[in-house]
Write the structure tokens for this entry.
Amino acid sequence: MAGMESWSPVMQTVPTPPKRLRAEDLRQMKDKTPIVSLTAYTASVAERLDNHAELLLVGDSLAMTIYGLDSTVGISLDTMIAHGAAVVRGSKRACIAIDLPAGTYEESAQQAVETARRAVEETGAEAVKLEGGVAMADQIAAIVAAGIPVFGHIGLLPQHAEGPGGFRVQGRDDDAFQAILEDAKAVEAAGAFATVVEATVEPLARAITETISIPTIGIGASAACDGQILVVDDILGLYSAFKPKFVKRYVQLGEAVERAAAEYAADVRARRFPGPDHVYGDGPGAAAKDETVKGAL
């Protein structure tokens, strides 16, 4: 109409949520882009890692890093599920895999499927991880047949390291070299989408990567692997019980935590904390302020 200004709607762009990476996406990265992987155990840490890692593993290493146990053995499925759900909630982009704890899958294919189904249904994780090659091929195949992606784990098997071989570099002699290579082939044939290769001699990890068609994720293995994984507490300098040769510390947060605690303790003992900025000073009769307190102890 005459005299009326023209009007056009303002188009608002709604950000598209990031696409969650799936197991098949990682499988397709073989021989293309190195896969960045880290462990994560909490929502807050998962949120910080999410933009930088294609794969976040809720590792049973939390038995040691979070709960102070001497090994990964002894953590329960319920505990793994609680941490797995937290990591899923804290992340939006990374593919999430969750470790099946020792004793929850080795007995039979049926047990493995039941455990895996609980793990993914109660956490929202994409995949499960279990240790073993030839000996666990039936379990891997059964879980995959049930529609659940499996992340393999060969080489050093922490859940079984109290037995022969222990926490030692794997594949140093011809028999061990060939046995772990056969483990890799068995994991691939059973349908795993990728596999960890842990603490092996470098030529073995390289040979596995060149032999199988699924991605290899190295830890103490080889730069030739299709990706790498480390325990997040190790790269942050938070876990100090021991430091394997293959760990690179990118920051020393453990020392920073101690410094912060010491400064806090000094402030409390000197009554410098809390100061005026940290207390609610208005009493009865003062003008009301709409303050929201969000926190918990």
Observations:
- The chain has one domain: 23-253.
